[in-house]
Amino acid sequence: MIWAILLMALGAFLAGGAISLQRQKAHLSWIIALWALAAAAVAAGWVRTL
Fold first, then answer.
1. Radius of gyration of the chain (CA)
2. Phi, then psi, of 8 in degrees rounded to 5
3. In the prediction, which pLDDT does 50 show?
4. Which of 8, 9, 29, 50 is the most exposed place for a label (fewest CB within 10 A)?
């Protein structure tokens, strides 16, 4: 259970980083990479709850 919470928190942290990079006009590849990692972390956390 704790791993699911940690993975979802990591996903939220990475999503926040992606939003921050969007506001800083960073290169698109970095933004896409962070969004992909955030989605993977949230998906992994959700799978851990099953």
1. 12
2. -70, -35
3. 86
4. 50
- Amino acid at the residue 41: A
The 3-state secondary structure of 1-50 reads CHHHHHHHHHHHHHHHHHHHHHHCCCCHHHHHHHHHHHHHHHHHHHHHCC
pLDDT tens-digit series, residues 1-50: 899 999 999 999 999 999 999 999 999 999 999 999 999 999 999 999 88
Contact status, residue 41 vs residue 15, Cβ threshold 8 Å: no
Query: Any residues with CB less than 8 A from the CB of 11 and at least 6 apart, and which?
Result: 38, 39, 40, 41, 42, 45
